[in-house]
Amino acid sequence: MGHHCCSKQKVKRGLWSPEEDEKLVRYISEHGHSCWSSVPKHAGLQRCGKSCRLRWINYLRPDLKRGTFSEQEERTIIDVHRILGNRWAQIAKHLPGRTDNEVKNFWNSCIKKKLIAQGLDPKTHNLLPASKTLLHGVGGAANPSGNGLAQFQSNNGVAAAGTTPFTISSPAKAAAFDVAPPAIPPALYDVVLPANPAGGMLMAHDHHHHQAAAAAAVVAYPYADHGNGGGVLMSFRDQNANVHGAASMDFMNGSSSSSSMEQHGGGGMSNGNGFSASMAAFMDEEAAMWATAVEPPGMGGLAGMDQVAQQQQVLVQDAAVGVGPTTLMMHGGAATGAGAMVDKSVEMVDVSSAVYGGAGGATATAFDLDLMVESCGMFCGGGGGAGNAMEQLQWDC
DNA sequence: AACAGGGGCAACCGCTTGCCG
DNA sequence: TCGGCAAGCGGTTGCCCCTGT
């Protein structure tokens, strides 16, 4: 079935000849394209208007950037795709000079395969089941405890290297993590991802004090202590005294252990998606996702921060997983030189880049949590962009 | 040198959306 | 409000080229 316009006239199809290109370019340059259906007629082309439009948009437009995608562009595509999915036009808006068609083709021909090769589902950006097994498969036992990230709670919190992507950075705190939780102070579970030279990310969930707690965590967390210029801190805090010490997130297994969220009765993160669920919760629904960026108490002056010290908090209504407000905090750039930990309940857990980069890998593969971090950096304007990129994305979408 | 297979990319198809009379 | 039309968009197709045998 042809286009509406095509049915009315004899039109040529297939590849465009240089002569046709020249005619179209000349006409558009001189007259513009107020009405595409009339363009072929006036330009002397045996094409339908739709074909002309596509040719112009995807190939002839003077502002197009031809050539291979840069690594930065590739990461941007991955980052935005993780949020928007196959909305190529929206993704392309974040790549000046690139068309949706180009982005789509690049994704299908290149990026998708890379992600699959790394054991990631290109649709969800989650680990594929086979990869989960592989990553978990120490001695063939894929997390026999069946509680997701049991490593969080085992061995006094010091997970055996090579068996888990997580290691507890502070054995003392880790031990405290395993023992009876403090009676009053809520548990705050942090996941710190080092080995990110470009920036860091911090996520915090506090069921009741999401803003303040997250802010405290950010302020308290010594970003630079890993000596690698950045890190990822994820913290989940819940006021529910019944769930202390139980929360965990399983980046590999896609499920959480006896997490606090589970005990909210809202499904928590025990929906098989684990970390991804929480991410997806604020990624999938664009309208609700990028809720107003919040400058939390104690983080004054964060808006418009420079790349080095930028920190941004985005309050997200985590309706999808039913855990109440989730505070997502990000920071990009290198050290902030934050002081000592203020919140003594904070537990920090290192996440080895080997999660995605292979066992013992000091360097993660091209797609790993770095991307999340850089993604956050992008949203926070880490790419040097002006203004609040998060808001821009929100509005762009 | 010839052929097959696969990858990359341009173009097409068809559905959705928005505008206008 | 409704129908027609144009544009936008994502999915799919098919051609061309490269590479391996």
Automatic annotation (TrEMBL):
<dbReference type="GO" id="GO:0003677">
    <property type="term" value="F:DNA binding"/>
</dbReference>
<feature type="domain" description="HTH myb-type">
    <location>
        <begin position="61"/>
        <end position="115"/>
    </location>
</feature>
<dbReference type="Pfam" id="PF00249">
    <property type="entry name" value="Myb_DNA-binding"/>
</dbReference>
<dbReference type="InterPro" id="IPR001005">
    <property type="entry name" value="SANT/Myb"/>
</dbReference>
<keyword id="KW-0539">Nucleus</keyword>
<protein>
    <submittedName>
        <fullName>Uncharacterized protein</fullName>
    </submittedName>
</protein>
<keyword id="KW-0238">DNA-binding</keyword>
<dbReference type="GO" id="GO:0005634">
    <property type="term" value="C:nucleus"/>
</dbReference>
<keyword id="KW-0677">Repeat</keyword>
<dbReference type="InterPro" id="IPR017930">
    <property type="entry name" value="Myb_dom"/>
</dbReference>
<feature type="domain" description="HTH myb-type">
    <location>
        <begin position="8"/>
        <end position="60"/>
    </location>
</feature>
<keyword id="KW-0805">Transcription regulation</keyword>
<dbReference type="InterPro" id="IPR009057">
    <property type="entry name" value="Homeodomain-like_sf"/>
</dbReference>
<keyword id="KW-0804">Transcription</keyword>
<feature type="domain" description="Myb-like">
    <location>
        <begin position="8"/>
        <end position="60"/>
    </location>
</feature>
<feature type="domain" description="Myb-like">
    <location>
        <begin position="61"/>
        <end position="111"/>
    </location>
</feature>
<dbReference type="InterPro" id="IPR051953">
    <property type="entry name" value="Plant_SW-associated_TFs"/>
</dbReference>
